What we know:
The protein is an all-alpha fold. It has a single domain, classed as Orthogonal Bundle (ABC transporter involved in vitamin B12 uptake, BtuC), CATH 1.10.3470. The chain has helices spanning 2-32, 39-59, 64-91, 100-120, 147-169, 171-181, 183-188, 193-219, 226-241, 246-266, 272-286; strands at 126-127, 221-222. α1 (2-32) packs antiparallel against α8 (193-219), α5 (147-169) runs antiparallel to α8 (193-219) and α9 (226-241) crosses α10. It is globular, with a radius of gyration of 19 Å.
Amino acid sequence: MNYFLDLFFSGLTRGSIYALIALGYTMVYGIIGLINFAHGEIYMIGAFTALIIASLLTVLGMNGMAILVISGLAAMVYAAAYGYTIEKIAYKPLRNSPRLAPLISAIGMSIFLQNYVMLAQTSDFLPFPDLIPNFAFMEPYSDFIGSSDLVILLTTAVAMLLLTIMIKYTRMGRAMRATAQDMQMAMLVGIDVNRVISFTFIIGSVLAAIGGLLIASHVGQINFYIGFIAGIKAFTAAVLGGIGSIPGAVLGGFILGLTESFATGYVSSDYEDVFAFGLLVLILIFRPSGILGRSENQKV
């Protein structure tokens, strides 16, 4: 039973990280219909930023919680700046171009950021400090869930809740929904569409940076390539749940994480990607819009 619970909570933890990144994918797609394939690299850059700041603060003699908070804030600000800049440079000029042009631009930006970080840092794996403290009340359950697992799960739940509240009840949320429904009409009624799109990229980048910090602290190492793998898995999670749906992104992340965890534990780690992408193929065959996605009728 303990082995099952260990796999279960490990899958939830992995799925939570996929969900945090998938939220960025699904928000951008919901607003402008674009798949931001450079989003995984934002996750990676957030992790590297947190590592640099944490290393500096450790040299200065700060304690664990202060390091976690400050490095987390720095990672979020830096990742948000990258997300904003990428949208302005790589996507905004191509907003009215054929669909293939922004797709190629997104893939090119992803490759550029990977190589930029590899040259600026290193191609080797780097150790990442454990910044999440061990909570005493978690000791009785330490055989199958740790403090970092709990923090990651709670962070994902809070992120989904705050995003849902923001989109439903705030002025910016109403502007985002209007832009997603009809961008041209939103502009006609006075909504600053460029501001809405930039805000969407910033929020998605902040969530990716949080995910990068948490999983790097949980795993204990990072390298320049982690963004590509996590980005592909998070995109899969977004499609599974129904891209454009915030609850769908979280649900898809959990399903993917649990599928990988149980496949690794009961079959073989060699087949975790086979099960994950096999599940995606089945969903696309029987429900192309995703689990919580809504089918859209195309006018011809």
